[in-house]
Transcriptional regulator, TetR family (Lentzea albidocapillata subsp. violacea), 442 residues
Amino acid sequence: MTDVATEKPRRGRPPVSDEQRQRQRLDLSRHAVRLFAEQGVAATSGEQIAQAAGVSERTFWRHFPHKESCVEPLLTKMVDAFCAVVRAWPRELELIDHLREAYSPLLDAASDEDIEAVLAVVRLTQGERALRAAYLMVRERAEDVLADVLAERAGLPRNAIEVRVQAAAMSAVLKVATDDVARAAADGVTRETLEGHREQIADALRGLSQVLVARPGPLAR
Amino acid sequence: MTDVATEKPRRGRPPVSDEQRQRQRLDLSRHAVRLFAEQGVAATSGEQIAQAAGVSERTFWRHFPHKESCVEPLLTKMVDAFCAVVRAWPRELELIDHLREAYSPLLDAASDEDIEAVLAVVRLTQGERALRAAYLMVRERAEDVLADVLAERAGLPRNAIEVRVQAAAMSAVLKVATDDVARAAADGVTRETLEGHREQIADALRGLSQVLVARPGPLAR
DNA sequence: CATTTATTGGCACCGTCTGCCATTAAGCGC
DNA sequence: GCGCTTAATGGCAGACGGTGCCAATAAATG
């Protein structure tokens, strides 16, 4: 009825800004991931994480509904960066080529420590099934972005079966490549490891278009 | 040193057979899924499931490490059946055609109640993130089987990047199709719904081979 | 029946996570 | 500065998830 932000004398303490909230979560997240990597998820209690970050256990649980969701802010940060790159994918370019161009800036945008932490999380998801769920949730968000972009480029509705399948397939490609790199970076991340990721993705994308057996292609004809 | 099974007078009560163990788990699983569907996962306590199945809470927890893993036996049963079909895929046939032939027997092998229960679980995984992890775990096992079969047919090592990517992509296809059917079967499963699944898979497989934008195909040339 | 081993159930206990309330912090007008 | 209002925090009790331990029972052998 009345205007948007008017009619609001706003008395009392204002809520903290959204960015600040994110920063708090991110801080908790970094401590949590460090502890997870050092001693495992099961052996790390919520109390411990809270203490490491200097807040009470109660407020820790207010920030994260489950212990595993601690990894989310860190992962989200990287995935969002990647999504931004995908969204900026120009029509006239191959995805591979676009990634080749945009990949390095993506790496520069994040601190080395965060990159290391993210890869540590990905590695942890191999054995710690509790983290797998969180990991796959944020991957799913990325898949939706991918589907949006694909749909727009193909001129199809977002939920067309072809679009969803393609998005799922490409998402799978990214997953395979990322897992490989995370494993490769088990002991120390170098610039080469990360550049390798780009080429892994390229390889994997090629693998996708090869279509070993799923259809009667030129190979089988 | 000594022979395999000899030298074992085997005194005392013998361990229960593996099949019997599986049957017990399956029984628990059915009760659990029913309760999950009726009142949600969070609102269903381990004690409740145990009581429904007529065992103590303690032995319930001995059968399942986490509450969510209750769904595993049911899902595994279906996935194993599907894997068997994939393994039997003859070289000279298209996958789609093979599935068309083998699909009905697959349905006949399971009770209607179990099929309904499985679809209910898949539907639940949409909203209950706790179940998502369990669901994705058994899907991953299926992906490995797929990779094996693909590797053998293509004459490549099991962990070749192309193989893994293809397996992941096909697995994604199955996931998309299955989710669609589970949604469609929200109110009552009919034979048509299930036959529809086969066609969904076929559609999705076609979608996979279309390759909207991932490479310079005839469309982009 | 006595013996041996596997399963079961009961109990105590730690960690996860929530609801509730008192306390503190951050803004406002005065 | 002082109230006043609202948001964030911390502390506490408690339900639920899940494990270790031990006693009781079940199923085999002789």
Q: What stands out?
A: Residues 119 and 213 of chain B are 32 Å apart (CA to CA). The mean pLDDT of chain B is 88. Residues 70-210 of chain B form a domain with the Tetracycline Repressor; domain 2 fold (CATH 1.10.357.10). Residues 10-16, 55-59, 62 of chain B lie near DNA strand C (CB under 10 Å from a C1').
